[in-house]
Amino acid sequence: MGEINWKDKCWVATLYMVRDDGKVLLSWNKQMQTWIPIGGHMEAGETPEDAVKREVLEETGFDFEFLHKSKFENNSEVEIVKFERLQLEKVPHHNMHMNFVFFGKCTRYQEKGETDEKEKLRWFSRDELINEKNEILESVFEMSIKAIDEVAKSNTISS
């Protein structure tokens, strides 16, 4: 069996979490000097979903549910995980990231200005994203808008 190339690749998972008011949560990354979604490196034995759950809890303490839930087939022997995309990212000074990107609905939060690592947290509306587009990576901007739209669509369907 082949081995995973861990020398120049990191496996990460991120979540674009959206509140009922249509705002998406982003965190200021000091090293990259830009806004990014909540998430981080997967630890040994974690699935991408496990990593996102752990990272959101550690970084924010907020509760959420995945927009697209996993489902089981073949008497619970096969789990189908639905993520938005697998994003390959060249990260300055930090290898290639293999990023599993998820969308989620925030179910409980409190106003909080920073993560556990003292990085700024901010909820962005669609208009705020558009106004600050130059401060946000293109992929983060696009996925933030898409997450807002997908959560709004799911809220309409479930109403």
Describe this structure in words.
With 159 residues, this protein is α+β, with helices and mostly antiparallel strands. It has one domain (9-158): Nucleoside Triphosphate Pyrophosphohydrolase, CATH 3.90.79. 25% of the residues lie in helices and 35% in strands. Strands 1, 4, 5, 8 and 9 form a 5-stranded mixed sheet that branches. The protein has a 3-stranded antiparallel sheet with strand order 3-2-10. Strand 8 (85-90) and strand 9 form a beta hairpin. The longest helix has 21 residues, at 138-158. It is globular and about 45 Å long.
Task: Reconstruct the topology from this structure.
Elements: E1 9-18, E2 24-29, E3 34-36, E4 38-41, H1 48-59, E5 63-66, E6 71-73, E7 78-80, E8 85-90, E9 96-108, E10 121-124, H2 126-131, H3 138-158
Parallel strand pairs: 1-9
Antiparallel strand pairs: 1-4, 2-3, 2-10, 5-9, 6-7, 8-9
How is this structure best summarized?
The chain is of the alpha+beta class and 159 residues long. 25% of the residues lie in helices and 35% in strands. Strands 1, 4, 5, 8 and 9 form a five-stranded mixed sheet that branches.
